[in-house]
Amino acid sequence: MRTVLMVAEKPSLAQSISKILSKGNCTSRKGLNGACSVHEYTGSFQGQTVRFKMTSVCGHVMSLDFIGKYNNWDKVDPAELFSKAPTEKKEATPKLNMVKFLQVEARGCDYVVLWLDCDREGENICFEVLDAIQPVMNKGSVRERSVYRAKFSSITDTDIWNAMSCLGEPSRNEALSVDARQELDLRIGCAFTRFQTKYFQGKYGNLDSSLISFGPCQTPTLGFCVERHDKIQSFKPETYWILQAKVFKGKDSPLTLDWNRVRVFDREVGQMFVNLAKTSREAQVGSVSKKEKTKQRPQALNTVEMLRVASSALGMGPQHTMQIAERLYTQGYISYPRTETTHYPENFDLKGTLKQQTNNPIWTDEVKALLSTGLNRPRKGTDAGDHPPITPMRAASEGELGSDGWRLYEYITRHFIATVSQDCKYLQTTIDFSIGTEAFSCSGKTLISPGYTAVMPWQGIPLEESLPDCECGDSFTVDEIKLVEKQTSPPDYLTEAELITLMEKHGIGTDASIPVHINNICQRNYVTIENGRKLKPTNLGIVLVHGYYKIDAELVLPTIRSAVEKQLNLIALGKANYQQVLQHALDIFKRKFHYFVDSITSMDELMEVSFSPIAATGKPLSRCGKCHRFMKYIQAKPSRLHCSHCDETYSLPQNGAIKLYKELRCPLDDFELVLWTSGARGKSYPLCPYCFSNPPFRDMKKGMGCNECTHPSCQHSLNSLGIGQCVECDSGVLVLDPTSGPKWRMACNKCNVVVHFFEHAHRVQVAQESCDACDASLVAVDFNKTRTPLPAGETQHTGCVFCDPVFQDLVELKHATMRHFMHRDEFPAALEEGSPLPVSPLSCKVSLEELYGESLELGLRLLAVRGAPPVLSALLCQAALSQLLQSDLSPFHCPQEAEVNPEEQIVVLLHSEAVQRHFLNKLIDEALAWRQNFIKLPSSPSRFLQCSVHAIKNTRRKMEDKHLALAEFNQLFGIQDGVERAYYAVFDGHGGVDAATYAATHLHVALSKQEMLQSDTATAFKTAFKHTDDMFRGKAKRERLRSGTTGVAALIQGQELTVAWLGDSQAMLVREGQAVTLMDPHKPEREDEKQRIEDLGGCITFMGCWRVNGTYAVSRAIGDFDQKPYVSGDADCLNQLRLETRRLGGDGFFDVVKLSSVSQIWSWMHLAAW
Q1: Which GO terms describe its biological process (predicted)?
Q2: How far separated are the first and last CA of the chain, in Å rounded?
Q3: In Å, what is the CA distance from 127 to each residue of 112, 123, 185, 940, 956?
Q4: How far is CA 1134 from CA 966, 1020, 1051, in A?
Q5: pLDDT of residue 818
Q6: Is the pTM higher than 0.85?
Q7: Residue 1125 preceded by cis peptide, ω within 30
Q8: Residue 752 confidence (pLDDT)
Q9: Separation between Cα atoms, residue 8 and residue 57, nearest integer Å
């Protein structure tokens, strides 16, 4: 049975679409990244029965960025970003492992249906998905089509089924237009932003913005706001006068008349007209006109109009509005919210859409009336060819949607009902009067038929006092005539709604990006939002725009960006070449950038007037380590320290308070330390201003404080105050805050975890000793006698904050879930059926034989990230696996494939996620039992085996090598023969990482099962390599894998070393300062290897290097089954060697290091370690 993979843009969309297409009969499971689910069902596709797998991404899979070294602001000239700096696609959210997740789900699939949003960004994501999955999908025949695109505008049964029945292809041109926009914005924005940020932040102290950014769309958007500000500032009010007349007839209320001359700007002229009018005491009716008028119903709703109304009427910002609209869309309440179209297609089911609103009491009367009398055809609008107008797709209530969601949905629904309603009709009456020589008039409106204003009452005809009945020639008594003085008023600041209109008019941004650009100028502190959602430019925003105007007005005017947008549209339509448009635009902006740099003094002159020099800003705080004078602390964003004597500026952590730290100094550079704190109950840490900007050690980066400093002896460093691995993140360390007493705390130096403990303790110190159970540093606590919480009134205790029962109730976690292995809240309960796993399994399906290795790998990985000591992890995993293998695994069996070759042995497969959930529950039980009984761990090995690992992927897209260091070999496999064992291995994958991962997971398991492990280790190794190769053959056939791996493994048994290898991975021994070669790597050009291959009928050819049959550059490997037996799976092995000194092993190391140099390198490493 063939498999169809379907991919949506968001997890909620995947769930909704799969529910519709499967008619509610799909099974769901969590994907390996934990964020996306996979929904599976059987159905029909292209006339055949197939298995569907519906999943999703989370927006863009990849993002565009410069390669590593070009992200260093200090070492790269911004001008290089226009052409020299290479870009690369990186995973947009690395933590999601989206590429790996998609490849796992796509492996073995025959077709893909792309359900990404139907706009240009969606088309771009289509090709990001295809780039990830096509290498691992089944390869069909040349003529067979495997990629399909679904086009839909709403999440309704009708629309989804229509899309499934009319599948098309993704548009490469639309995707390229997005690629072009991304690269232009990246190169242009980064170049200008880096230059002006570094130039001005180094000169002025009160800019109050952490980034002085430039954007091809952002800057013209700011320009509109500053242009209105300039009009307000330059406005000069003028005085003018109007004639105000009031007349009445009989006992009727007086009428206020409008002067037909409107106004005059000369008071004496105005007074003259007053005198002329006062010559008559009566007002004569010159004419009475009555005209029926119509107020047109609105056109269908598009994105820009929705954003305008949401801002002006609902008080919701554009960014917030789009977030709510997207949520309503994914939940199926409205159609796709990004559209420029205001015209409904001819086949749009207006009546069916309206019927869904009949039961809502708010507008039920209007809807029923329309259905009974007939819908009015909506006004003709603009068809942009993208999506239908924004329309309600099903009924909803405020309780379902929440406050803001309901307000937006209510407006969208009212707008839709209005489009199919009648126009509003009213009668306008105008009475013309003459008083003396002057003409006046008054008018009034009387409603005839409310039409669409019944559902949009804010657009209705306001209630007015009715005009008196009169005819031509009637007379009214003049009550008063007077001259009223007034002044012209300036325009108001732009509202968001007005700004959106201007951006649409000038082609700045798209319906999707307009909210982003407005949000950016607010976040950069270029404008502030005032009452009524008016945008008032800040001093910085004004100066920047005026500076751009002085240097190059086109940088801020909308004309050039509008022209670029038109070119991008031509790319999308296939009428312009992607590379030519990109290069042309970059050439223009590159020249503008060079002119901008040369003319920056023009903008600087404006800055000098508006902002203070950095030397005159801030207040003295701490002493400089170079001149020993006080440096000034500048609080305005970005906060920093400046030494005016040395003319040096030092960065500081942002979003917190800075104060002097006890006048203590850094032992490295003599700078006074400062303390950064996020608040009384938050985290704080000291830092050296110089080290923060200039890391003193290789393993440190810019922006690290003392809590990450690796100084070996400084009392403030990580080495002195670090306690143990963070309970939440994988890379952080919990560090004692020595300033926090008497409310003591430790905080992670990477994430926001804060652990409060030992309140009211007199002293808390980190001890030199570490915990035997979890390897955390012990903490010595000294309490006052009157407030000690320790048992029996003790005042002093030293123990582990995680493991020591005395400390368990004195530790309180903030900002995160306690995940440390031995904390009382860890492993609280068994994992329920269907719940996501805390770590992802390696495979979707696993054989009974593979279950052994994959379960151990999963368990060790889980316990490692939770800080469990390796010995304990090995014991717990071994115990849990024994329990698992003794249980009934039949409920986890996968159904047999329909087509099975009777000559092949049937392999029982298990659902990996389900059986591993069962294993983890066993592991949880074992861990809880161990914690309750606190059984003493077995003693450590008699010798300490130091092991270090360094891995680098160089220019490869992803790391294909795997390694394993297992000093707890005996504990993991329950071996109790009195011989200490440690296992080390490196695997060099090629053609993918699958084979290397498989070997790193299963080779040591196969080795542990060999009966001759102790008596004949070499034979045991060879058998284990061969068996692992055979096992991988089965998996490769099931999942159509084509990768391979070489490898080198070593087993230390007591004082004996055994090394086995396959391919060109290598190991070396250093004995008494001399390099000892242990092995001869398998390479095709080796004479015996060449002879073996040729005897089998193969050949060795030179294609840049020697290759087997012109394919692989290795002659032995696990995997590579398309070249077996020429690429052999038989390992070589060095018989047991007495181990009297240190060993160095690796893969790729010997490609660049000569054997003669190894001993010197090892000696240097050994001395450096001490």
Answers
A1: DNA recombination; DNA repair; DNA topological change
A2: 62
A3: 12, 7, 20, 53, 21
A4: 20, 12, 11
A5: 40
A6: no
A7: yes
A8: 80
A9: 6
CA 717 to chain centre: 32
The pair of three-digit structure tokens given for residue 297, joined into one six-digit string: 């119903």
Give the up-direction half-sphere exposure of residue 939: CA atoms within 13 A in the CB hemisphere: 5
How many CB atoms neighbour CB 240 within 10 A? 17
d(CA 1097, CA 1126): 8
- Please check whether residue 758 is in contact with residue 745, taking contact to mean a CB–CB distance below 8 angstroms: no
**Rounded-to-5 percentages of helix, strand, coil across the chain:** 35, 25, 40
Residue with token string 């749009």: 348
Report in angstroms the alpha-carbon separations of 265 from 235, 244, 275, 436, 484.
Answer: 17, 15, 17, 21, 12
The span from the CA of 555 to the CA of 191, in Å, is: 13
Cβ atoms of 683 and 693 within 8 Å: the answer is no
Q: List Cα–Cα distances, 577 to 176, 567, 580, 582, in angstroms.
A: 10, 9, 5, 9
DSSP 524: T
Other C-beta atoms closer than 10 Å to the C-beta of 210 total: 17
Those residues whose C-beta lies under 8 Å from the C-beta of residue 1026, and which sit 6 or more positions away, are 1129, 1130, 1131
How far is it, in rounded angstroms, from Cα 871 to Cα 158?
59
- Residue 759, exposed/middle/buried by CB under 10 A (0-12, 13-18, 19+)? middle
CB 873 within 8 A of CB 967: no
Q: Are strands 672-677 and 777-783 parallel, antiparallel or unpaired?
A: unpaired
For residue 1113, pLDDT beyond 90: no
Long-range CB pairs of 965-968 (<8 Å, 24+ gap) are: 966/1004, 967/870, 967/941, 968/870, 968/871, 968/873, 968/874
* Long-range contacts, stretch 70-73, CB < 8 angstroms, 24+ apart: 73/194, 73/198
Asked, as a colleague might, if the bond just before 468 is cis with ω within 30 of 0, I would say no
Residue 470 C-beta-side C-alpha neighbours within 13 Å: 27
Alpha helices by DSSP H, listed for 552-654, are 558-572, 578-598, 600-610
| Consecutive H or E run containing 487 | strand 475-487
Res 825 pLDDT > 50: no
884 touches 919 (CB < 8 A):
yes
- pLDDT band for position 854 (50/70/90)? very high
Residue 297 backbone phi and psi in degrees, to 5: -65, 160
- Greater confidence, 141 or 845? 845
Higher pLDDT, 330 or 439: 439
87: left (phi over 0), alpha (psi -120 to 50) or beta: beta
Give the SS3 label for residue 689.
Answer: helix
pLDDT at 1162 over 50: no
What is the rounded distance in angstroms from the CA atom of residue 438 to the CA atom of residue 259? Answer: 8
Cα torsion 1011, 1014, 1019, 1020: sign: positive
For residue 952, give the DSSP letter: -
CA pair distance 421, 508, nearest whole angstrom: 33
- Residue pointed to by tokens 């949905």: 409
Question: DSSP per residue over 187-224, as a string?
Answer: HHHHHHHHHHHHHHHTTBS----S-----TTHHHHHHH
Catalytic residue among 111, 204, 336, 998: 336
CB burial class (10 A; 0-12, 13-18, 19+) of residue 1007?
A: buried
The enclosing H or E element of 1057 equals strand 1056-1062
Per-residue b or e along 622-634, where b marks 16 or more CB atoms closer than 10 Å to that residue's CB: bbbbeeeebbbbb
333 catalytically annotated = no
Look at strands 1132-1138 and 1056-1062 and give their pairing.
antiparallel
